[in-house]
Amino acid sequence: MPAALYGNKQARDWFHLRLLLKLRRGGTIGQGMGLSIQANLQRDEDMAETLVLIPGLACTARLFEAQIDALSGSRNVVVADHGQDDSIPAIAARLLKDAPERFALAGLSMGGYVALEVMRQAPERVQRLALLDTSPKPDTPEASQDRERLIALARAGRFEDIHAKLWPRLVHPENRSDQVLQGIVFGMMRETGADAYIKQQRAIMARADSRPLLPGIEIPTLILVGEGDAITPPEIAREMADMIEWASLAVVPGAGHLSTLEQPERVAQAMRLWLEEG
Description:
Order of helices and strands: EHHEHEHEHEHHHEHEHH
CATH superfamily: Alpha/Beta hydrolase fold, catalytic domain
CATH topology: Rossmann fold
Distance between the termini: 27 Å
CATH class: Alpha Beta
Strand content: 5-15%
Helix content: 40-55%
Number of domains: 1
Radius of gyration: 17 Å
Mean pLDDT: 87
Largest sheet: 7 strands, mixed
Number of strands: 7
Low-confidence stretches: 6-18, 20-47
Number of helices: 11
């Protein structure tokens, strides 16, 4: 089943058609991608447009491994550092300091919050934008209370308990029994560590409302969401797409909040077409 595609402007119809055809040809999801992340993150100034990827909370470059493998052959791909600062503006400022003058930008979940902050701080530097499984809304009081409880568990080193609480909401119901996927997600959390995890949670809790920013985004923008995303559901993605002039929306079947890991080939196909847009 291909992704369900939406666009709010006639100018994007050709993009929608190409993406639909690509996803229909996609077949089954690739297995056992044994690439070296470090090899694919090396800078090469002779390559085309740089793509900067921003992972989500408690995630590492492994979140985008399949997309790095698929896209780095024709462009430089780098993964932003989002574990040293405790505010979204500071993370965005670090990204802008390290990034080339102009670049394509994609972020998933927390990475989307940072991507929107980059658009707030330096919109002229971003050539195209992809917002994956994310939201422009600020944290709710209820969500912040839940985060405080998770921070307490992290301080106590109880990552197994954090993972147990989050796992059912992170992936599509059909993927909850996938032990390999679960191992990848838990491994990223342990690699992130307590200090960085707490900083990330603090940053997320204090994030700004980015909805007023959306109508001013005037670059090719991909809004992508898993059909079973329980954290930032498709309704939020549709709202974002409706507010951005050059946005196209892809709803990915068989994926929850971690679409890049759950349906890696479909997401890579959508991103490839987004990057090819003039």
